[in-house]
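BUG: 3D viewer hangs when loading the predicted structure for this chain

Environment: internal workstation, default settings.
Expected: structure renders.
Actual: progress bar stalls at 90%.

Input used:
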Amino acid sequence: MGFSSSSLLLLLVFLLLLRKINETSLTYITTPKNFHILLDHVDLDGEVITTCEKHFPQWGDAWKDPRAHLHICDGAQFVRDTPDNTYDVIIQDSSDPWIAGEDGVMQPLPSGTLYEREHICELFRVLKPEGILNIQVSE
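Structure tokens produced before the viewer hung:
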């Protein structure tokens, strides 16, 4: 199983948000006094988490942080079940929506639903008005 550079970057961002947000090196960030961070990490494949815990021990305990909530489930369904205006930031780093078969014909993958208009609209629905949406795409 391979990890894209964007997946590893997102994992790094995840760790920085959990572990570094209160360090003095980030004091230039203006936040309300009651600022706190909570993360929902949604992954369809629990083996991705197991692999990270095993092969990246320096990062593998990130999900033990009480501010992180790991959900092993369908991401599109998770978003559909989420109330409006829930998130300040959404980072979607999913696999490609299709793969080229040996004959060169594109074959859809289950992650294709995460690139459909309906899902993108759902992401904006659960995003707060001034929120940020980041979607990983292939080159």
